[in-house]
Write a structure and sequence with these properties.
188 residues, alpha/beta, binds adenosine monophosphate
Length: 188
């Protein structure tokens, strides 16, 4: 399946300095949601450019308007939404994890100060590069706003997809391998 992450697409637009990237930069750094119009446009572009196979939507939809739009877009390409995975994590654990994470700027390998720290020699275990990056919005202030946006605009999607019979919940506080297993079971 192809992973479609709206966050990744928006960060890419920022890095490549497109007009849209410039518009969304401040919004993202503050921890606010980007407009529905922009993210629905991004997903629409990707769906129409890709034929066959399945998709994993990551960080999308995040509002009821996006969820309705996704339903319509999938219908157009003759696809259905098989399941929605809710990963349940309490806020304190989420903040602790997110403020500790970083990635290799060269290969994208993920690190976390708590469970997988950057090696003592300062080199990525995967590619040997020593350029580690943290997301500009992975700080406590932006995170507070991101959580607020989640409660106000995204959490209603739990009820929306429950009512459609596609919601599956997994315990996101378990060990990494156990979370992966739970997701595999849900998708099987
Ligand atoms: P993420 O990488 O999913 O944590 O997203 C990072 C940021 O990108 C979010 O805090 C929003 O500012 C923006 N973003 C990503 N996906 C969406 C979406 N579906 N709707 C609105 N904003 C989004």
């Amino acid at each position: 399946m192809i992973q479609l992450s709206t966050g990744d697409m928006l960060r890419e637009a920022r890095t490549s300095g497109t007009a849209m990237g410039k518009i969304v930069a401040d919004v993202m750094d503050r921890g606010d949601l980007v407009t529905d119009e922009i993210v629905i446009g991004l997903i629409e572009e990707k769906l129409s450019a890709t034929r066959g196979g399945g998709f994993i939507f990551d960080g999308f939809p995040r509002t009821l308007a996006q969820a309705d739009a996704l339903g319509e877009l999938l219908e157009k390409v003759d696809q259905t939404l098989d399941c929605v995975v809710e990963m349940q994590v309490d806020d304190d654990a989420l903040v602790a994890r997110i403020t500790a994470r970083s990635t290799c700027g060269n290969c994208g390998e993920g690190y976390n100060d708590l469970v997988k720290p950057i090696p003592a020699d300062g080199k990525c275990t995967n590619c040997g590069a020593s350029d580690f990056q943290r997301r500009a919005d992975d700080n406590e202030e932006s995170l507070k706003q991101r959580l607020m946006e989640y409660y106000k605009k995204t959490s209603p999607l739990i009820g929306y997809y429950y009512a459609k019979g596609v919601l599956r919940s997994v315990n996101g506080l378990a060990e990494i391998d156990d979370v992966a297993d739970s997701i595999s079971k849900v998708l099987a």
